[in-house]
């Protein structure tokens, strides 16, 4: 600031000097030859002006210095204030940095804790895999023992076959000796008859042939009866042995399907989000999927109830996606349900393909994969149809291997013998007729077509492999715990309830829920008006009363919904 004052003072002095110079220049200075009488006065005036200018300059300089001191004081105060504010800001930043550091430290500790938990889970999974490997090794050891035992049985069977062959050869020799004895007896009798009866040779020969033929027939019948009885006993023993061995080699799953599925929740707060404001979320979910969503006091669990396994699987997949996504509202529920419905076909087709690969049937037409996979969502007297078909295929294939038949054809026919059940509930009619139509469409061989018809005795068995499939089907169905009549009756009652409702025109879809105590009917709003919807509920209730036997009462709910959609662009 002092440098600016010095420059200011210098500038003022320069201005004053230039003014005085111009003033003196304006006066005409007399020459030395002609001295001016008032030159001295002018000089005095100039000196006074200069002196006065110097005094004014000193005063200005003094004022400037005072102002400079004031400005300096103000600047120092401002500087102290700025320094104080800077220190406060530094303290605040220091505390903020300290808080951020503490937060980062906590986040790092939480991250390390999570990683430790993940590592612990991985260690548990590794231990689980090790235990699984140990179980598989034990299973392989048991399999090896079983193969050794089977080899021993085969050797014993070979010995028995050799013994049977020796017995047959011995019997053949005995028959040859008996034939020789018969020839000798015939010759002696012929001579005796000629001597006693005085018959001609032709007459004696004819009489002798008749007698010998009768005796030979009686002896042959006795031998044949004895061989047939022995063969029957032996065949029954061998059949029991083959069936027992095949069933022992098969370790099948317990194929029982229930009517409920549970979904685990991350926390109990999701129950409120699933229900939604005034229950709109749960109503939308049940309407779109056709299931009952049961939310009770059980912690972190929601139960899905439906008699149809396909609907339960679809609802389970959709609910798990909604929980994972976190956005649960009617529009999002509808979007997710539609996505899952589109993906279900691919999942079913992949399941059918994996089943064929598991059974070693690599040449089955890929068009059948979808129908084979769909059997997983069908039951027969509470027995899962896909698991039942696999069980039949395995048993028939192993019995065919025991008997030296075509095991691949037996497995193929066993897997496809109930394939018509995949769509019989949708198209109506016998599952055998629908199965024949499907298999013909995709070029399946004749033994498969024969197995589809023959396992219900609709046509005779034409191939030995088909007979094994029929036996395996009976074994799988008769296994303890495989089938339960009461559950199947209940499921058929619910299916019939839906069929009755869908028989009315204008019905878009129908869902039997609440264990058959309620049926939800979704109608097409373009075909059915509100008044017609009211009458439709009455007509449906009346037809259910006429055609069904049911305990208690059935609630008929007709839903008519109109939507108008537009997009803002």
UniProtKB/TrEMBL annotation:
The question of whether Coiled coil is a record keyword is answered with yes
Molecular function (GO) terms listed? Answer: hydrolase activity; RNA binding; RNA endonuclease activity
Biological process GO annotation list?
Answer: mRNA catabolic process
Q: Which InterPro entries does the entry link to?
A: HD/PDEase_dom, HD_domain, HDIG_dom, KH_dom, KH_dom_type_1, KH_dom_type_1_sf, Ribonuclease_Y, RNase_Y_N
Q: Which residues form a coiled coil?
A: 36-195
Q: What does this protein do?
A: Endoribonuclease that initiates mRNA decay.
Identify its protein family. Belongs to the RNase Y family.
Protein name according to UniProt = Ribonuclease Y
The source organism is: Hydrogenobacter sp
């Amino acid at each position: 600031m002092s440098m600016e004052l010095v420059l200011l003072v210098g500038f003022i002095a320069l201005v004053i000097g230039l003014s005085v110079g111009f003033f003196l220049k304006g006066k005409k200075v007399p020459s030395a030859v002609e001295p001016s009488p008032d030159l001295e006065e002018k000089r005095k005036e100039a000196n006074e002006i200069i002196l006065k200018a110097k005094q004014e300059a000193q005063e200005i300089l003094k004022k400037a210095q005072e102002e400079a001191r004031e400005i300096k004081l103000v600047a120092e105060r401002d500087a102290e204030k700025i320094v104080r504010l800077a220190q406060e800001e530094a303290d605040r930043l220091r505390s903020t940095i300290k808080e951020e550091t503490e937060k980062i430290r906590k986040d790092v500790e939480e991250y390390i804790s999570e990683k430790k938990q993940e590592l612990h889970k991985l260690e548990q999974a590794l231990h689980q895999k090790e235990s699984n490997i140990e179980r598989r090794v034990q299973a392989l050891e048991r399999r090896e023992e079983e193969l050794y035992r089977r080899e021993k049985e085969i050797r014993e069977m070979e010995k028995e076959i050799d013994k049977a062959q020796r017995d047959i050869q011995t019997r053949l020799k005995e028959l040859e000796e008996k034939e020789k004895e018969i020839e000798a007896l015939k010759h002696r009798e012929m001579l005796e008859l000629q001597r006693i009866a005085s018959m001609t040779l032709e007459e004696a020969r004819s009489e002798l042939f008749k007698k010998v033929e009768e005796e030979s027939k009686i002896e042959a019948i006795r031998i044949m009866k004895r061989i047939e009885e022995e063969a029957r006993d032996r065949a029954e023993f061998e059949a029991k042995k083959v069936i027992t061995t095949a069933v022992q080699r098969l370790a099948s799953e317990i194929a029982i399907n229930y009517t409920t599925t549970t979904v685990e929740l991350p926390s109990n707060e999701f129950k409120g989000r699933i229900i939604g404001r005034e229950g709109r979320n749960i109503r939308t979910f049940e309407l779109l999927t056709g299931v009952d969503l049961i939310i009770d006091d059980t912690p972190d669990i929601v139960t899905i109830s439906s008699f149809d396994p396909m609907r339960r699987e679809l609802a389970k997949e959709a609910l798990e996606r909604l929980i994972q996504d976190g956005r649960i509202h009617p529009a999002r529920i509808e979007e997710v349900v539609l996505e899952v419905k589109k993906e279900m076909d691919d999942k079913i087709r992949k399941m059918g393909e994996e089943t064929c690969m598991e059974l070693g049937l690599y040449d089955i037409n890929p068009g059948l994969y979808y129908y084979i996979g769909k059997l997983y969502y069908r039951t027969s007297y509470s027995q899962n149809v896909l698991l039942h078909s696999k069980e039949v295929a395995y048993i028939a294939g192993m019995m065919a291997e025991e008997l030296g038949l075509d095991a691949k054809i037996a497995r193929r026919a066993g897997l496809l013998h109930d394939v018509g059940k995949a769509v019989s509930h949708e198209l109506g009619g016998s599952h055998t007729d629908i199965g024949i139509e499907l298999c013909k469409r995709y070029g399946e061989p004749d033994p498969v077509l024969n197995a589809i018809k023959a396992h219900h005795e609709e046509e005779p068995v034409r191939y030995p492999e088909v007979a094994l499939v029929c036996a395996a089907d009976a074994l799988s169905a008769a296994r303890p715990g495989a089938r339960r009549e009461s559950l199947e009756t209940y499921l058929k009652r619910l299916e019939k309830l839906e069929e009755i409702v869908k028989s009315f025109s204008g019905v878009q879809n129908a869902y039997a829920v609440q264990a058959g105590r309620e049926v939800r009917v979704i109608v097409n709003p373009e075909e059915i008006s509100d008044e017609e919807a009211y009458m439709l509920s009455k007509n449906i209730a009346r037809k259910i009363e006429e055609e069904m036997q049911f305990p208690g009462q059935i609630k008929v709910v007709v839903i008519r919904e109109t939507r108008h959609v537009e997009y803002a662009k």
